[in-house]
Specification:
With 198 residues, the protein is an alpha+beta fold. The chain has eight helices and six strands; from the N terminus they run αααααααβββββαβ.
Length: 198
C-alpha cells in the first residue's frame, strides 16, 4: 500500500496538470486569429448582384476588383461570390473554403495584382470566355480564363455568371512598361488596362 502523503502528491500533481491544460487551451483560444463570421459579414455587406444588363466583361471586372480588395477586406470576397454561378458555388463551397482556395498558389495572383487587363469577351450563344491579365508589383503578369454562362435559372434569368476560372499562363517578370507587359502577354488582345484600387 502506498503512503498517504504520496497519494496526495500524485492527486495534487494530476490536478495541476488538468488546470494547466485548461489555462493553456484558453490562452491559445484568446491569442488565435479570429475566424471570419461569414454569415454576419454577408448580412452587413451591400453587394452588387447579378443583373441581365451586365455584360460578361463587366461581371469579370467586378470579380477581379473584389479579389484584389480581398487582400485587406474579407467582405470583398462575398462580392466575388455573388457573381459565381450556382454550379460554381456547389464546387467552391462555403466562403471559408473559397477564401482558402483563392489564397492558394493557383489563384493568389488575382489577389496580389496591382493592375489588370480585362479582355473583350468571346461569346457563343449563352457561353462566354474572358481573358484576364493581372500584373503584380514586380511587373509579373499572370493570365486567367473566366468562363461564364447566361443563366436560365429563374432566380438569375439571363444574367451572366462565372462558372469557372482557370490559370492560363504566367509571363516572366519584366522591366518593361505596363503596356509592353500586356502586349507580350497576349499580342493583339483587345482590352483595357485597369489600375488597381485599394
Amino acid at each position: 500500500m502506498l503512503p498517504q502523503s504520496l497519494v496526495r502528491r500524485c492527486l495534487l500533481l494530476a490536478a495541476l496538470c488538468v488546470v494547466g491544460f485548461a489555462i493553456g487551451t484558453r490562452l491559445m483560444m484568446l491569442t488565435a486569429p479570429p475566424e471570419t463570421d461569414w454569415q454576419a459579414l454577408q448580412a452587413a455587406t451591400l453587394l452588387k448582384t447579378p443583373n441581365p444588363e451586365l455584360q460578361p466583361e463587366q461581371v469579370v471586372a467586378l470579380q477581379v476588383a473584389a479579389l484584389r480588395a480581398f487582400r485587406t477586406r474579407d467582405a470583398a470576397l462575398l462580392q466575388c461570390m455573388a457573381f459565381a454561378s450556382p454550379s460554381n458555388r456547389s464546387v467552391t463551397g462555403s466562403p471559408a473554403q473559397f477564401a482558402a482556395m483563392v489564397r492558394g498558389p493557383k489563384y493568389r495572383a488575382l489577389i496580389e495584382c496591382e493592375k489588370s487587363l480585362i479582355g473583350s469577351p468571346s461569346i457563343m450563344g449563352d457561353q462566354a470566355m474572358v481573358l484576364v491579365t493581372v500584373i503584380d508589383a514586380s511587373h509579373r503578369a499572370s493570365v486567367f480564363r473566366f468562363f461564364l454562362t447566361k443563366q436560365s435559372n429563374p432566380r438569375y434569368q439571363n444574367c451572366w455568371m462565372t462558372d469557372s476560372v482557370t490559370p492560363d499562363a504566367e509571363a516572366p517578370a519584366t522591366d518593361d512598361s505596363d503596356a509592353d507587359v500586356v502586349r507580350h502577354t497576349f499580342p493583339g488582345e483587345c482590352g483595357r488596362l485597369v489600375r488597381g484600387h485599394a
